[in-house]
Design a protein that fits this description.
By secondary structure, the chain is an alpha/beta fold. It is built from ten helices and six strands. The protein has one domain: Rossmann fold.
């Protein structure tokens, strides 16, 4: 298990006005969060002041991330991949572009996301919860979970981490939101609309140890 940064390049490419989001008059934070936590239209394709403001496929945006994952975990067209919290499946679709024939699977709590996912892989995506994965032990060559687990309440983190460890053969990678100081903590509180687990890196590592999670991990910070 080690900390590897695959995500910060994408995370830092977005400009964020923290105060504007938390002080918005039409969508004050409580209202935005209530809408976002339905993980329906408003979360994915509604107003930007609520969440994504239109979660669209952008050609090439995930190329570098996919290349890094393929190279680091020695993936081939014969590999099996699971994306927990796959959303509309854009990341999994990119894997199929670079490795034709690769066996991809995605799980997400949002029915809306799956219904509006990348058509080419939609049949490989299922609705479900990270705490109860419908797959056999050690089934996947790589299990990824990017920016998802921090949306779980603390009482569900243990089960989700255990499940991720269970279904992965050797390689697992997750990324979660975190903070290292009071400025980053405040920015995270201002920006987030679905986060339930507010942990420092040290606290996240404690959770990993408690659940027996032995995969790789990284954190994103709101600087």
């Amino acid at each position: 298990m080690k900390e590897i940064d695959f995500i910060s390049e994408i995370h830092k490419s977005t400009t964020r006005d923290y105060l504007a989001r938390v002080n918005d008059k039409e969508f004050p934070k409580a209202k935005a969060a209530k809408l976002a936590k339905k993980y329906d239209f408003d979360y994915w394709d509604g107003d930007r002041r609520i969440c994504y403001g239109g979660y669209k496929y952008i050609e090439g945006r995930l190329d570098n991330l996919v290349k890094k994952l393929i190279n680091h975990y020695n993936l081939t067209s014969n590999s099996r991949i699971l994306d927990i919290g796959c959303g509309k499946g854009y990341l999994l679709y990119e894997f199929t572009k670079f490795l034709p024939g690769i066996d991809v699977h995605g799980l997400d709590i949002s029915n809306y996301a799956i219904k509006n996912s990348k058509e080419e892989i939609r049949e490989k995506l299922i609705n479900g919860n990270a705490t109860n994965l419908p797959f056999s032990n050690n089934y996947f060559d790589l299990v990824i979970c990017i920016n998802t687990l921090h949306n779980l309440h603390s009482y569900d983190l243990f089960d989700a981490l255990k499940e991720m460890e269970r279904v992965g053969n050797n390689n697992k990678y997750l990324c979660v939101e975190s903070y290292r100081n009071e400025v980053e903590k405040a920015n995270l509180l201002y920006w987030q609309v679905t986060c339930e687990a507010f942990n420092t890196p040290k606290e996240w590592k404690w959770w990993f140890k408690q659940a027996g999670y032995n995969g790789d991990y990284s954190f994103i910070f709101f600087e």
